[in-house]
């Protein structure tokens, strides 16, 4: 458990500064949801601390949206518990909902209104005071990178810009927990980058982020911890490197060199597990390529090899997913 943190929730009395006694912002235990005979979510548990981005990574139909809908309090669960900022949370918990910014896949914007007018509308829904709303709307436009286009009607926006505005709506009331459901699905690369940068900036300010995606690269770039979900169950959880280590895959350093031959100096290095020798190339298997690379290169050079190119291959979450479930992430 970390040190206590403060989360500023606004100046309106209904959104007054809250003291969060722990840095554990979200805790869910043994979540379960069935639709008829289908078990959509089965015994899902995880926690997210302040400033942390937790990614739920899994293919279509894995149970990501169902899980986060229960956490957001918009879908009743069949089993398990959720607590937000140390208080039990569910579909009827207004206290918890004020502490969550939920950004669904579907857009809920007024196309004829501008971004600023949309935000003004939602600020009223959140019962933000006038002055508070005015400041917060400008801050949120800045965070999602739409200040320059704030006056334009939303119907003229690209899909990615609408998605960014939707995220802005979720941020208006300064929630300590932001839930994003596949925020980059189908958006242009520029908006995708803007979204990823906004999320990184928010976690820097202490916001806890729950992020669902089936894009492995996003989970790897953004998430401090990742839960790999398939058929409603979390199959493994951890930081990228922990997940990769879990399935026992090694990094590979490929050295392209003339006149390759077995190199005992390389095999003698403690970090080297195995060396494969082929015509014109050596495949050096290590647990952590980034830390082993300088010594591997030095040993190869000392042994008289003239290295012409170096390539590092680190096993990614796709290989972990394949290993755990026997199928590709994007079937
Ligand atoms: N309201 C519902 N009624 C019946 N089945 C449902 C309902 N909502 C979800 N499901 C089913 O539950 C399973 C999990 O769906 P869910 O939408 O949570 O997956 P997901 O991982 O979010 O997928 P996607 O990436 O496509 O959004 C799927 O088999 C889906 O068909």
UniProtKB/TrEMBL annotation:
Gene3D superfamilies: P-loop containing nucleotide triphosphate hydrolases (3.40.50.300). Residues 26-256 form the ABC transporter domain. The keyword Nucleotide-binding applies. It holds the Pfam family ABC_tran. GO terms for molecular function: ATP binding; ATP hydrolysis activity. Keywords: ATP-binding, Nucleotide-binding, Transport. The keyword rRNA-binding does not apply. It comes from the Bacteria. This is ABC-2 type transport system ATP-binding protein. It comes from Nonomuraea fuscirosea. The lineage of its organism: Bacteria, Bacillati, Actinomycetota, Actinomycetes, Streptosporangiales.
